[in-house]
Amino acid sequence: MDTYEQAQADKQMLERYVTSPGIDMDARYSVAGHGGIAFYLDGYAKEWTEESWTYDSEGDPDDELSYLYNEPEEVENTTMVRAIMVGDDHVWIVDIDDLTVIDEDSYCPSCGQIGCGWH
Ligand SMILES: [Zn+2]
């Protein structure tokens, strides 16, 4: 393994570590405040950073050319997820602390209700 491959392997290991803080995106969840309905997840919430200017710490602080522009960028917020009610298509942005894993067979796959008498 050469240096480049080693760097790629390290990067992959880091990414795996960073992107797996314990939320199972394939599981079904109930959400605090929305009791009785099963949700599935559509990944982490995304948000945009605000544009900003960083002083380059060399030039005249009063000269705008001494500042570096930071573009807004889309980042994942791993404390929040996109949750969608089973049987609905509205996306809720939910705090991961409000999620509770439910059994695959404890909710109704057609209406999303937990404990629906239909199934
Ligand atoms: Zn049902």
Characterization of this structure:
With 119 residues, the chain is mainly β. It contains one helix and seven strands; from the N terminus they run H-E-E-E-E-E-E-E. The strands form two sheets. The protein has a five-stranded antiparallel β-sheet, with no helix packed on it. A two-stranded antiparallel ribbon has the order 3-4. It is elongated, with a radius of gyration of 22 Å. It binds zinc ion (ZN). Residues 108, 110-111, 113, 116, 118-119 line the site of zinc ion (ZN).
Task: Give the topology.
Elements: H1 3-18, E1 28-31, E2 39-48, E3 52-55, E4 67-70, E5 74-85, E6 91-95, E7 99-102
Antiparallel strand pairs: 1-2, 1-7, 2-5, 3-4, 5-6
Number of strands: 7
**N-to-C order of helices and strands:** HEEEEEEE
Side by side, the strands of the main sheet go 6-5-2-1-7
Low-confidence stretches: none
Comma- or semicolon-separated keywords:
single chain; 119 residues; mainly beta; 5-stranded antiparallel beta sheet; two-stranded antiparallel sheet; binds zinc ion
Brief digest:
By secondary structure, the chain is mostly beta strands.
